[in-house]
Amino acid sequence: MSHLCLPDPRDRSLAWWKDEPACLAWWRAVTDTEAPTGLPYAVDLARLYSYSVPTPEALIALRELGPLIELGAGAGYWARLLRDLGVDLVAYDIEEPSTNSWIADAPAWTKVEVGDEHSLAGHSGRTLFVSWPERPSGFMSTVLDVYPPATLVLITDGRVSVGADPLYDRLASGWEQDMAMDIPRWPGRYDSLMIWHRTDSRHPERHRRRRRASRSAGAAPKRSDEMCATLRRRRCRDQQPQRKPLGDIRRKFAPNAR
According to the UniProt entry, which residue ranges have a biased composition of type Basic and acidic residues (predicted)? Predict the structure, then answer.
């Protein structure tokens, strides 16, 4: 890995790298290494970026389901990418990044409001997006009562194998899974992106959005030309971001690494 150049994960101006999520570029570098070397960096990178790795396919599928509201947004990495693509999105987390134990005490990637499931009530009509909610206990057991969206985008590792799982028990009654999308996984994680809709939801626009999201997920290439074009329109290309040697980046966010 020492010969590679990758973005500094603490630099909030470098959410993208070569027209794809910077987190995805780091995931490739980490998973190309042997496990004893890659795993410690994956833990730190998940805290600095996101515990789920975004892809062009996943971002385009989410864009087709907008407007969105994200709960448990953390430092807002997914929210930043989606907003860069023009998505109307509101992001909440119960803690500010500076006090959030799940992330590496790093600045937010974008604006994340402080709020919990009760903050969702004023945002009806938005698709709910939640990545890695705490389970089997946690807020998701009540979110669907407080904010019953027509469509739910969920990133988890599926139903727990032992004991009760209130979230999936709830989804088993009154909800139907439209699709499941494989996304890259940090070592030791087994998450997928799933799109669910309420079976009593018959709004035609919601059905059109789900069909568009399914087509996007099934047909999008690894690096979407559409995404590249959108980013070129939204970002100034007069000055290329400075590339930093991997060794310098390692020392910056993993100072004890060898």
Answer: 237-251
